[in-house]
Specification:
The chain is an alpha+beta fold and about 170 residues long. Helices cover about 30% and strands about 15% of the residues.
């Protein structure tokens, strides 16, 4: 007697023969691949030029120009103020690493600042001064290096960081 898993395998996966390419289906594709491409013809109203006259470094006026690849729009990034003992790096999408967290069922609201390098204690003190908070309210997670601000204050923190030049 067959086990149920064996029956399931027989019906779940297609046969290997179905997945193999058929010789009849490959024949027209192989014939097209074997034929050499037709030689390029010069335009009817232009005189033919020798290969020495046309250099590959000079683009001809008859070639079509390809459009430039699309580039992502990124916000204008300013250089941070010199002399700061800390630096806040941006994310790969050129955003500031400031995130809002809701804990304890949404009752505890926090703002988390990541990617702070340098003297995090001075960063914490200046951030508390900039947001008009007590320095003890802002906590520093020494294990992860994140700065935790109470409340949803992402807009205020981002505005403060942008004023500093980050």
């Amino acid at each position: 007697m067959l086990r149920p898993t064996t029956l399931l395998r027989a019906f779940a996966a297609p046969s290997r023969r179905i997945l193999l390419p058929q010789a009849a289906a490959l024949a027209p594709a192989q014939q097209q691949a074997e034929q050499p491409p037709p030689p390029p013809h010069p335009p009817p109203n232009t005189p033919s030029a020798s290969p020495a006259e046309l250099s590959p470094a000079e683009p001809s006026s008859e070639t079509t120009q390809q459009p430039a690849p699309k580039q992502r729009l990124r916000p204008k990034i300013r250089t941070p103020l010199p002399g700061l003992p800390y630096h806040v790096s941006r994310t790969p999408y050129a955003e500031l690493p400031v995130y809002e967290l809701a804990k304890r069922g949404g009752n505890k609201k926090l703002t988390n600042v990541k990617k702070v390098e340098g003297d995090k204690a001075i960063f914490r003190a200046q951030l508390a001064e900039g947001l008009a908070l007590a320095a003890d309210d802002i906590t520093l997670n020494t294990l992860t290096g994140h700065i935790v601000v109470p409340g949803f204050r992402r807009k205020e923190v981002v505005k403060w960081l942008e004023a500093k030049g980050f």
